[in-house]
Amino acid sequence: MVTLKILVVGANGQIGKHLVKQIQDSGKHIARAMIRKQEQANYFSELGAETVIVDLEDEVAAITKAADGVDAVVFTAGSGPKTGKDKTLMVDLDGAVKTMEATKAAGVNRFVMVSSFDTSREAIQRASSSFAPYVVAKHYADEWLRSTNLDYTIVHPGLLTNDPGTGKVHAATKVERGEIPREDVASVIFGCLEDDTTIGKDFQTVTGETEMKQALQKL
Q1: Sorted alphabetically, which SUPFAM superfamilies does this protein's record hold (predicted)?
Q2: Residues acting as catalytic residues
């Protein structure tokens, strides 16, 4: 197995923290955690991960520098439910697109996007007025990624919980709505990074009965 250095954008989020820990615990790959504040660094330093301080509202050049020398980029950042439409636009859409452009500028090909469960036009029409801007931002970020020449995977997780991960998921282009622990979402991301057959795949995932690696192989 070739050792990968993986830039995790949104590392201080709950999924990001699980992912960095899994990468470091693997003993064969290295995480670089992109965080917004120095005070967030201790968690990652204790894991032995690299840290880089960049705000997603910074210019593309700053993100490009963060991606220098890595083998893959994971975008798992999000504005969060308590922010306004402006932050949704600046982080979930503009931040995502800038990260893609930075990834290309840094000469990195592999990109994993953590999206929303359903980012279709139909989902936008069904969404509440408060949730619609988030779905719109994710819709266009996903569309932008599909239009690039990056080796991408787009993961659409179900309703996120803080339950312990089970290691078993259901993954397909379309699945019934359901829950999935954030720890398992991180495992799915990590699994995608280790499985090149997931390149070009765009799938939904919830808790299921299939071991994660097998579920990814069946996509």
Answers
A1: NAD(P)-binding Rossmann-fold domains
A2: 134
